[in-house]
Amino acid sequence: MNRSTIWVLILITIVALSGCINGNQAPSNTLEIKGSDTLVQLVSDMAEAYMMEHPGADISVTGGGSGCGIAALINGEVDIADASRRIEEGELEKASERGIEIWEFVIARDGLCIIVHPSNPVRNLTLDEVGAIYRGEITNWKEVGGEDMKITLYGRQSTSGTYEFMREHVLKGDYSPDMLNMEGNKAIVDGVKVDKSGIGYIGIGYLRDGVKPLNIASKKGSAYVSPLDQEAVEDGRYPLTRPLYQYTNGMPVVGSLAYNFLKFELSDKGENITRRAGYYPPNTEDKANNDEKFRMIERKIR
Amino acid sequence: MNKRSWEGVKDRLIAFFFAANGILTIIILIGIFIFLAYIGLQAFHEISIREFFFGKEWNPTAYGEPKWGILSLVTGTIYIAVISLLIAIPLGVASAIYIAELASPFIREVLKPAIEMIAAIPSVVLGLIGLLIVAPFVAEIFNLPNGLNALTASILVAIMALPTIISISEDVISAIPESYREASLALGATRWQTIKGVILPAASSGIVAASMLGLGRVVGETMVVLMVAGNSRAFPTSILDPVRPITSTIAIEIKEVVQGDLHFQALFALGFVLFLMTFAINLASDIFLTWRQGVR
Q1: pLDDT at residue B7 in the model
Q2: Which CATH number belongs to the domain containing residue A260 in this structure?
Q3: Claim: this prediction has a pTM higher than 0.95
Q4: Which of A12, B56, B154, B173 has its CA 20 to 30 A from that of B7?
């Protein structure tokens, strides 16, 4: 072979091998958090408040959906995954296959809101009716006491923890294929705001003027409860109350940024930030579970 | 070494540098092809080819059994492609004719950069304009509850394809020798008859090539479509239905897959299908061009 061919082959080899260079490990006072769109604003607020008190820390928070965050956690790309749904068996298995130990913490509670356009006369629905609507079995508002209008379904995408939560707990079946898969809570709010026939589901922190939350009854005959009733959300009378989770990559060792940040989120200051964002703090059971985990962590260093 | 042999060496080094760049392009293309194929084809260990290519439902995270049919995704891509080309080609060719044949030099100087600037608009900005202006407009006209459907997406994507189609068509039309026009006018034809009967047929292969390039652009557009096409999984039956083309599907689902998963591999297979579609379109346009030139 002649000279130029040899040079071409050398060039090809260099280009092909350049992909094998490894990146550096991140320094330990940075924290990568990724996941739930429901949590993204809240956790960003927490991170900002924490970084103001601890100027050396560097916390980055991105959204993408609970499924996205958990997948990134399993791929070893982030330190903490925000999730508005519980991690699944299959995901835990994949994580342990990759040698990643996952710790679960509840950092807030949500009263998931079912929203409609303010002009919609419907104000109350049972959980079954919501499920039937989203499964595509009820297609017209007149079937639930509204006007004669075809229902337009606004929902999230499969990356969303809220999407999974609704499917597990309310639909217990598949979503209607006509549902519009929006990118986030805000997109659902924007959609329902201008659509008189729309119905959507959002985390309560995203509730704004321009959309109306419905009162939900757990079954026919029970009382219709509003998601804005804090006591009802905390004691579970509001049927769509759910814990909001953070999953860490490995045990958050005492003194690590992950540990300190978690403690901050669960402190009084963190609780104030949670309430200001429109969410509810973890209830007694959540707090007990968190405390048990912290005891296990603290015991390991003694 | 003396000055003359250094110049000789420099000459060859520079030639080598240019060659290396050209080869790099091919390496990247082949690399992408192999990467997509290698991972994508692994999906077929578990998904039957029949279900993949002929199944109507794509639902990898279904409550029950996952479904891997790409037909509704491909149909969504085709709907948007066809409608946006129906808008962009007539508009684009007409604009090209105006710029090349009828506009005064002053207007030409203003229009050409203006059209280039359309190409510079970030797609996410166009998506925003779509959400705030085009979607409500479409909803008004067709009396729909919202404007998130294939038609809205097609309108916006047509805007994105316009600069490509206009630029290339205009170049082709300008390249037609003056003698053609002079001969036609000398025979007594009007300017419109000249354009219709002489210029357009002569430029037709170039215009087809421009349209194919526009088509490639349309089929691959992701951001705009993600924002305004509605993204519902149902099989689209009219252009006023929300659609979920291949690009949106990949963009949405790639974030939640774990590397090496079946879903991961299926998305690569989907990407490979899209890659092959665009590749086939470009190949067809190349062949068409060469054939026409051969005939001439």
Answers
A1: 86
A2: 3.40.190.10
A3: no
A4: A12
